[in-house]
């Protein structure tokens, strides 16, 4: 994995094998496939751009698909399963709702910063691309290391297990424990199926995500309406003393903020796919401006509905708040809730698989991952090797007994990298004042976000020092891999030949080729 000096210009030393131009294998010739598509012989949903002889990913995401991606990630299973993380730290209904509002405002502030970054640096890869552009190769590699080794596969595994548990629950009943192997097998099958769908049928995938987005919103609106009706019937005793017994400990408040922010996580994921977004200068910020206020309003109202029906102690005792809510108030219609949770987890997993593969692809394109991961399928024009690689890592995480612990170790590190990404707005204002910025946010916006994130990163150091230390250790382990894989370019000939052989073998296996750039 030789180094790359510029994000937009991968070096010629990168091991990006392409077919022999004199006698190319038919299966790897993008032009032949594109010609077949033009003659009606193409068989896949993905397609090339108007210049069909080039192997590139198509700009096939519009505003609706952009909104669906953001909402699909944010409206995962979290809002249905575990909003108790806030209430159990602050011990007060009113304070809990205030934190949900503040977390939404913080997410909107961060999203505004990402709108500027995404239009000023219109490249896929999200945080990785911005950190690379601002701070160089090593910080970007360490973010990619954490993301590919921990953040992405563990999130995929947890979302897959959540979906599996809600699908299998009716077959085992409340009194019977679901076998762990059954959960793992169904989660693995789901991850493999969605990886296949994202690999070969992008149009079907995006349409499915649009439908699931509206389904999730409908489910949350149902919860909100039921909660409001319950309150209008006079059941407001849970709000009689909203701020009584509020916790004021900074550590507990920061942990409560983390729980809230975790539920809003995903507002920056559309930036991972900027290069596939039609008219990104308009659609990227518009998708953000539509999604974040909508999410904040729905989250606050949904939590009001939960708190109207369930007491704080009932919320803390529940492992799936929406299901407990439904069982208490919906009667025979309570089955709707677990179905909706399963659909949400399924849709969220699909979006996460799609977006995270683009970060892996961009990292490989810049020499920070094995070269084969920067290749594109010549049939579907998707980053097929990256999708398969992350699918494999996600399935490995399914058999790791303490996968949730890995997420805990890395969550603070991830917050640090998000802070680093947003700080790039301030950095570029100072170092590149003439940089073209289609969106130009006020300086107080990124400054405020960085200050709040710094607080949320520093405070847990004394609240949970072991978890913070493990997260830092996981990150530092990536440094030797950086120097061996990226910095060390004069590898022995036999090592380079082995890398070339593996790359070309995988290239033939995946029917993939190096992305072709415009002249």
UniProtKB/TrEMBL annotation:
Pfam families: AA_permease_2
Record's signal peptide: none
Mode of membrane association: Multi-pass membrane protein
GO cellular component term, pick one: plasma membrane
Keyword Transmembrane belongs to the record: yes
Transmembrane residue ranges: 61-81, 93-117, 138-161, 181-201, 213-233, 253-270, 290-309, 329-349, 381-400, 406-429, 441-462, 468-488
Keyword Membrane: yes
Location(s), subcellular: Cell membrane
GO molecular function: L-amino acid transmembrane transporter activity
Family from the record: Belongs to the amino acid-polyamine-organocation (APC) superfamily. L-type amino acid transporter (LAT) (TC 2.A.3.8) family.
Alphabetical list of PANTHER family matching this protein: AMINO ACID TRANSPORTER, GH08870P
Protein name: Amino acid permease/ SLC12A domain-containing protein
Originating organism: Drosophila ananassae (Fruit fly)
